[in-house]
Each structure stands twice: as C-alpha cells, then as structure tokens.
Design brief:
Blueprint: H1 3-10, E1 16-23, E2 30-39, E3 64-65, E4 72-77, E5 82-87, H2 88-91, E6 101-102, E7 106-109, E8 114-119, E9 122-127, E10 137-141
Antiparallel strand pairs: 1-2, 2-3, 2-4, 4-10, 5-9, 6-7, 7-8, 8-9
C-alpha cells in the first residue's frame, strides 16, 4: 500500500469524524478538514425523550465529541469532477447493491469512481477523474482546525 493510501486508510481508524471545514482554495481544487471524535462515556447520563418532559429512554446516553487528543485530517484534491455534501440521515437511506467500496469512514467506490467521507451529520462525496486519481492528498494535522 502506498503512503497516500495508508493516510486515507488511517481515517478509518477513527471512531467517528466531524466535518470542520470545506473550501475551494483555487478553482477546481477541494480542501476538506475532518476531526476525529470519540464517545465520551465519562459523561453518560439519562436521555430525556424529546417532546416528553420527564420521560427518559431506557439506559444511558453519552456525547460524541472531539478532545485535544483527537486527530485532525486535511484532505486535498488538486482536481475534482464534482462534490456533494449531504445531511447524514438523508444520505444514509439507499441500498446500492451494484456498487462496491473499500473503507468504513473513508470509502473509495471503485465502479462510480468517487470517494465518500462519512462524518457525523454529513456525508461528503467527491467525484474524480480516473486519470487524475493519485493527485489527491491526505495529511494529519496536530493543531485545531482553521
């Protein structure tokens, strides 16, 4: 596996991801900043049922949040065909039996030639030209997202 693929696969080692920033630094280039997030079971508490004051779900709930120990990743495409940001619940409904992908949070779809970054609250699809693939870049950043 090459270094670029290793870095992209490293996104899959996160428990969860949050989209922190998406921008086009230049024409037809795309920069996405995502930050790792973890389940903070230290803050477990009963969860009140929305719209039903005083009624609670069985069990406990805990927040999913980023901490100082969480990693930040910067993804950069020097050229993309298209990108789409979808709200997580809307974009999670379909069944695509004719599509195949590798990865969990950072997916590479081999038939439709696109990446999908699966974040809490957002799904980000980035289409690429098959000939231009390989010019994309992922790096880990230790600082907070800017």
């Amino acid at each position: 596996m090459n270094q670029r693929a290793d870095k992209f696969a490293e996104l899959d080692t996160a428990e969860h991801l949050y989209l922190r920033k998406l921008s086009e630094p230049r024409d037809n280039t795309l920069r996405i900043v995502v930050q790792e997030a973890i389940s903070n079971r230290a803050k477990a508490a009963p969860l009140e049922i929305p719209g039903s004051p005083g009624k609670f779900f069985d069990g406990e709930a805990w927040p999913i949040e980023s901490s100082e120990a969480c990693r930040t990743f910067v993804l950069h495409w020097r050229h993309y065909v298209a990108y789409l940001v979808t709200e997580e619940c809307v974009g999670s409904c379909g069944k695509y039996g004719d599509e195949s992908f590798t990865g969990r949070l950072a997916r590479l779809y081999t038939r439709s030639h696109h990446y999908k970054i699966v974040c809490l609250n957002h799904l980000i699809d980035v289409g690429f030209n098959k000939a231009a693939r390989g010019r994309d870049r992922v790096r880990q950043r230790a600082t907070t997202p800017a």
